[in-house]
């Protein structure tokens, strides 16, 4: 689960993280009102979407003023103008995809005198099973570019969960970033607060780019946070921050039915039980010359109703030209899957090739249900056979 920059800053502020004063606005008039309550001099108006690279992004509409999604202005009138040019417009960044995302709110923040821009992130490193800090002196740049061009400029620091973050961790990072004097104290205070906020909120990623040095202070100029979806039941206050408008409609619908669904760019829809089997299914589709249209794991305890819903979600994607159902019935019974597939195919008037491979508990009963349905379901004996058949069927139907 992702949240907006202004939400992340509000959350981190509760843990003592120093953030610049600012406020969210849904209209140009609200943006001007927020600016009136900020220190005069310089204001920053930021489009709020779930995508990075807003400053370098471009709007599709000419009315947006031909500038990016982060604008520095000097008067309240300019704040209002910038907000009016952004709100309701579609911002395209390197992370949003070509379709872009519609800006429905902006964050108006006080400006500051920046002497240096740094990069900082916290993430869960599965290799060490620890929270790891990643910092660089190359703030304001895409960290992927830094990693590719100058990997030596990225410093990693793992934190032992038994001790938590300690002063020597913070000093090591501060020295690596070239901080001096009171800047080191400011960095230590900041990192300690960020680490506590990261753990307490069950975050999976915290990224600050840029982290800025202004005089003797070190401040987060931006903040991006992702959370472990499996831990959200512990954080109803974070769940309330969810912006469903920023999520893919099909992925959102799938989440309401406890289905793990991710939309992809291919033409062959996949319905599988088990994440590992789903990944293998997508791989073998590519091996036989096809492209998967989605990742969809119905889980081990799926009911007929959930299977039916999963099938409908796959078919709601206009790019789907064929479907491969690949089920290993261990906990999941093959007859339940078959009943769901047949019910869904009838409800939606199936008009694309459907290949089903079943194996495991009640497999013969499942095959009989599909055979007796009278539907044009293509059965497969194994995974390779299923992938070959669905790719062939899609090509022949084209």
Description:
The structure is a single chain. By secondary structure, the chain is α+β, with helices and mostly antiparallel strands. The protein has 13 helices and 19 strands. It has helices at 5-13, 28-36, 76-86, 143-149, 167-176, 182-200, 236-239, 249-256, 275-287, 304-315, 334-347, 363-372, 383-397, and strands at residues 22-25, 43-47, 58-59, 70-73, 90-92, 101-102, 106-110, 116-125, 130-136, 154-159, 203-214, 217-220, 224-227, 260-263, 268-272, 294-297, 322-329, 354-360, 377-379. The protein is elongated and about 75 Å long.
Q: How much helix, percentage-wise, in residues?
A: 25-40%
Strand content: 15-25%
Mean pLDDT: 91
Class from secondary-structure proportions: alpha+beta
Profile the largest sheet: 6 strands, antiparallel
Total count of helical runs of at least 4 residues: 13
Shape: elongated
Number of E strands = 19
Question: How far apart, in Å, are the first and last alpha carbons?
Answer: 37 Å
Spatial extent as radius of gyration: 25 Å
Low-confidence stretches: none
